[in-house]
Design a protein that fits this description.
By secondary structure, the chain is α+β, with helices and mostly antiparallel strands. It contains 7 helices and 18 strands. The chain has 3 domains: 67 residues, 2-Layer Sandwich (Uridine Diphospho-n-acetylenolpyruvylglucosamine Reductase, domain 2), CATH 3.30.43.10; 131 residues, Uridine Diphospho-n-acetylenolpyruvylglucosamine Reductase, domain 3, CATH 3.30.465.10; 80 residues, Uridine Diphospho-n-acetylenolpyruvylglucosamine Reductase, domain 1 (Alpha-Beta Complex), CATH 3.90.78.10. Strands 6, 7, 8, 11, 12 and 13 form a 6-stranded antiparallel beta sheet that branches. It has a 4-stranded mixed beta sheet with strand order 1-2-5-3, covered by helices on one side. Strand 6 and strand 7 form a beta hairpin. The longest helix is centred in the last third of the chain and has 19 residues. It binds flavin-adenine dinucleotide.
Amino acid sequence: MIIQKNKNISHYLTLRNNVVAELFFEAKSREDLIAAKKYSLDNRLDIFILGGGSNLAVLKSRMDGLVVKNSYVDLKVIDGNEKEVKMSVSSGFPISLLIARSIQNGWSGFEYHQGLPGTVGGAVYMNSKWTKPLTYFGDNLVYAFLIDSKGREKKVGKSYFEFDYDHSILQKTKEILLEGVFILKKDSKEEIMKRAKFAFDYRRKTQPYGIASSGCFFKNYQGRSAGYMIDKVGLKGFSVGNYFVSPIHANFIINKGDGKREDLIKLIGIIKNKVKEKFGVTLEEEVIII
Ligand SMILES: Cc1cc2nc3c(=O)[nH]c(=O)nc-3n(C[C@H](O)[C@H](O)[C@H](O)COP(=O)(O)OP(=O)(O)OC[C@H]3O[C@@H](n4cnc5c(N)ncnc54)[C@H](O)[C@@H]3O)c2cc1C
């Protein structure tokens, strides 16, 4: 294992937070992921699996322990008939590539996630969603292989994950996803492409694109949109240092470049206070705060 020390991992995070990992390892296979877990157990280190880094806001300047960038990319069709296809997809597989492959092959089930950044591991961990119509990443999962807390491999069925809105059991157990096995329906490439394009165009119209963010920062509250509330307290476009609230979608925090952690912490505080004052709502982060 090649482990790097004191590695700046900012460019692995879509919000580009400036942070150093005490120890850093890039896993390129399932064996690498298993070895990394074993290394963390043998050396009593915390381990953090980094997928696409697109649902994180790192407020620390340093992450202690072992940060593992998951670059395990593999997809195997394991069964199928004229109606459906069963495939094993590795946890480091990029969502963008998964959708491109799905469109190419006429596999339907993931297309509404067109434009979702990150990896299969992060999308299963978060049970990432699309709301038009409501679809969750975990919907098509049948079973999966995990590494448990003792470093052992484990096969679990879909119900194990307790999928819900923004929720999977992995958030509690901190087990590592190796591969997910999914069943997708066969459909015409044109129809799948149409649905993927609809989702992608909708994102383009309503969200900032191609800049440093981690997507929707706060959870909606009892059906009330966090973005709406942030907009109504007048914070669209508001900035602290190089971090600012997107003028396009108020639930996106953007890093103009080289944003300081103190400024991000201050901006989060201002947003929460103003929303609490006007709406009596305590906003909770949707992104994972580290
Ligand atoms: C522009 C933009 C648009 C977005 N749109 C959406 C959207 O429409 N819907 C939505 O739900 N989210 C959205 N997000 C948020 C984010 O992209 C998703 O939550 C995504 O699925 C996270 O995947 P990731 O690989 O980047 O995970 P990361 O951010 O790298 O990690 C998230 C969590 O998953 C854990 N994890 C990652 N891989 C594994 C693994 N193999 N095993 C166990 N745990 C693992 C990490 O340790 C971490 O705790 C958006 C983000 C951005 C920047």
